[in-house]
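A quick aside before the break. I want you to see a complete sequence-to-structure record at least once, exactly as it would be stored in a machine-readable document. Don't worry about memorizing anything.
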Amino acid sequence: MKCKRIHLMKIDRGGETMNRVNKRINGLMVLSILLLLLTACTSGESSSGEGEDGAVATSGEGSKELKIGLTVNNLDNPFFVSMSNAAEAHAEELGAEIIVQAADADLAKQTSQIENFITQGVDLILLNAVDSKGIAGAVAQADAAGIPIISVDVGADGGIEGTVTSDNYQAGVLAAEYMIEDLGGKGNVVVIDGPPVTAVKDRIAGFEDTIEGTDINVIAKQNGEGNREKGLQVMESILQANKPGTIDAVFANNDPVAIGAEIAQQQAGRQDEFYIVGVDGSPDVIEAMKKEGSSIAGTSAQHPDDMIVKAMDVGIQVIEGESVEEVTKIPVDLVTQDNLSSYSGW
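That is the input. The structure line, written in tokens, reads:
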């Protein structure tokens, strides 16, 4: 009967007990309503695509700083220095973090860099491939991890979302058209090729397609590997194999190679024999062209700063679920001794 006695005692003190219970219930109800209102306000604020500090956010997750990984061929080439500087400046505008790495023309090193980007949890990878086909495995790893990759300057296999590049075919066409006009459609030219990437292949294709059907003949074609030292070595070898008076012009796949070729030409005492046209529009080649007696007649100028900014914007579009062009081409301009003074440079 103890149960009944306890029950009866509660009834006897019911007025006091019920008042306390009601107060607790009312307090809990008020607290619950306040929590619901706070949650609704917070949810509404976090659905925005961009936080107050400009950082890109994913809907429903609150403000989240965008983290970007950029790997370029090397940072000895002013082209990639300009690109990396522009990337860092644009990342600051976006309120994003960017990690810049140089692969030093080493496929294994670039593969490792992409793997590290994946481990670091980046949201976007910008890739300037040292080998368009060879990097496919690393690109596939990033794709499997759900990290979009935008290739910059050169294409890449393995599952990229898009490519932003100069119109490299046009760069070759402009160089060829200059030579055709200057040489009157006939002569002997040398082509100094470069690394096995789409940008270089497109430049060479544009050049060779344009001279087809003319009387301009390619008498030598070697790989300058995209750097000044190798360009010098290759040009030395070509000069030794071709006696003076047999070369009219040289098309170099980029400006460092063009400068290397000019040095070899000067060392051989053949600077009055032929001229050189490169690709890039780099500060170094512009400085070389300004020197009295320079044999560098022109360069198909690229715009690396515009290119990387566009690539970053395209990457953000992909993250936000928007469709993008497979290839976005940035136009190039031919800079010659005639318009050198009006070229603004990088």
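Two observations worth writing down. Residues 1-62 have pLDDT under 50 and may be disordered. The domain at 67-164+305-329 is CATH 3.40.50.2300 (Rossmann fold). We'll return to this after the break.
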